[in-house]
Input
Amino acid sequence: QVQLVESGGGWVQPGGSLRLSCTASEFTRSRPFIVWVRQAPGKGLKWVSRIDTRTETESYTDEVKGRFRTSLDHAKATVYLQMNNLIPDDTAMYYCVNSWDGSGSRGQGTQVTVSS
Output
């Protein structure tokens, strides 16, 4: 099973930026998708973005389109989530998951807090 470790969260003011990292033990062709999901306080898990590690095809939920960008570095087996123009509603614990839809086991996550 691929192991994933998230990092890069923190506190930022509205309009600011953060870059999250998801470092994998490996990328596998049998399970090529890395998904970012988030969970706001008191709310359920929501899918944010997906990247296909074979083709680097990206997908985003409408809430973050135009503001977030996911990318990957094969040499480092790392997927990034660049988050720009952050708003308070982006406040959540962010997780990366090695699956198509974000289901399955998650790591410890990284907290993102957007407030003034």
